[in-house]
Write a structure and sequence with these properties.
Layout: H1 37-53
């Protein structure tokens, strides 16, 4: 076996295998338009109330 030609193992790139089509920072969702924490909490509370009502 030719150990000289083996070389060092390739290190991981530490990056995702693909890009999401609607990721923040893309042309569909530019930076600065991420919803705030207040909006998230309001949405979660509304969903919890709707689930209780069922």
């Amino acid at each position: 076996m030719d150990y000289k030609a083996a070389g060092a193992p390739k290190l991981g790139k530490n990056a995702p295998k693909h890009q999401e089509h609607n990721a923040y920072g893309s042309h569909r969702k530019p930076f600065g338009q991420r919803p705030g924490k207040e909006q998230l909490l309001a949405r979660m509370k509304a969903a919890a109330e709707a689930k209780k009502a069922q």
